[in-house]
Amino acid sequence: MVTVAHISDLHFDGGEHNRRRVQAVLDYLAARSESIDALVVTGDITDEGTPAQYEEAAATLQSPIPTLIIPGNHDRRDEFGYGLLGRHTHDSPINRAEVIAGALFLMCDSSVPGRNDGYLSNATLAWMDEQITAVGPRVPVFVCFHHPPVMLLMPFMDNIRQRGEERLAAVAAKHPNIVGFLCGHAHTGAVTSFAGRPLCIAPGVSSTLNLPCEGDDIVNTSQPPGLAFHTLDGWRMITHFRSVVV
């Protein structure tokens, strides 16, 4: 059994509000760290991608859980790479593959410099294909990125979702050992399907965005920070959502 904690959209901005919300979620996870195999953070680590915001993120994002992190549309690749990974990445996609607890985690950079919508480059998709092939068909695979590749019926976010998703679906069709897709971006806890597999969007840590039925305002200020737990039972991914008191 593999247990994954999944958070997204931290938006460090130098202010106490977002930092306190992130810290509350990290404290909640740290208290349960012995039962969690991996912490996946699916993007928008900072609000504007400045060096100071990455310094704040690096100082706060301390966890006893093995942590995997990717950028989102609010991040800047080179600043992200230098501030959080200790190396200049320039404008190249920041992809990472790691096997934890017998599962392969593919952290795929769907950010596009200068844009808010997302896209997985051909090079990233080829890398994904190679990584899954290399571990073999008996290893379960979590594919993680920032932008959902589907419509969520949230007009504001659907306009800046991941494009070119048919190319990702074609790669997924080759690899039935992909057990799920994990992403963020929409600031709402949600589960749907993509390419015949579960697709889970983590709740926003910094804020929640309204559904159309919840009003005309984009941001729902009444909601606490949230997270998702994914448990892998054989080849079946089970997702549970939690809210955290700040």
- Across the major sheet, the strand order is 4-5-7-9-11-10
- Anisotropy-based shape: globular
Largest sheet: 6 strands, mixed
Low-confidence stretches: none
What is the beta-strand fraction? 25-35%
Characterization of this structure:
- The structure is a single chain.
- By secondary structure, the protein is an alpha/beta fold.
- Helices cover 25% and strands 28% of the residues.
- It contains 6 helices and 15 strands.
- It has helices spanning 16-30, 51-60, 77-85, 122-135, 155-158, 165-173, and strands at residues 2-7, 38-42, 67-70, 96-100, 103-107, 118-119, 141-144, 162-163, 178-183, 190-194, 197-201, 208-209, 219-220, 226-233, 236-243.
- The strands form 4 sheets. Strands 4-5-7-9-11-10 form a 6-stranded mixed sheet, with helices on one face.
- β4 and β5 form a beta hairpin.
- α2 packs parallel to α3 and α4 packs parallel to α6 (165-173).
- The longest helix has 15 residues, at 16-30.
- The radius of gyration is 17 Å and the shape is globular.
